[in-house]
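Structural prep section.
Before we set up the soaks we want a predicted structure of the protein with calcium ion in place, mainly to decide which crystallisation condition to try first. Input record follows.
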Amino acid sequence: MMKLLTIVLGAAMLLGFMEPMLGAGHRPCWTRWINSDSPNDGPGDIELLADLTHEFRGEVCEIPLKIQVETVDGVPANKTGQIFHLYSNTGGFICRNDQQGSGKCLDYKVRFQCQCNSKEHLY
Ligand SMILES: [Ca+2]
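Run finished without errors. Recording the tokens verbatim:
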């Protein structure tokens, strides 16, 4: 009985050790989609991480692993043909109206990938 218990415990410990290496222990999560700015006022559509971590405190983490950007209609940013001034998981997103052939950015929404086990509220 003792021997079986030792084997079971050993296997559990081994799994616990393996899990982070397999990535399962740090399963990443995405925040909800956030749209805090509009290209209709100001120089473009500006969704800066520094602003969003402040505005959505406890929801957007300080150092996201990834950023994802889509138009408000759900078209991935890289499919729109527009030029982006900033598109960074550590900086956020900026589309400048004056860099577009059309003279106007589309309205974009962003979301960030954070660690699931952090204190941020994630979906
Ligand atoms: Ca926007």
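Observations: The chain has one domain: 25-117.
Flagged for discussion at group meeting.
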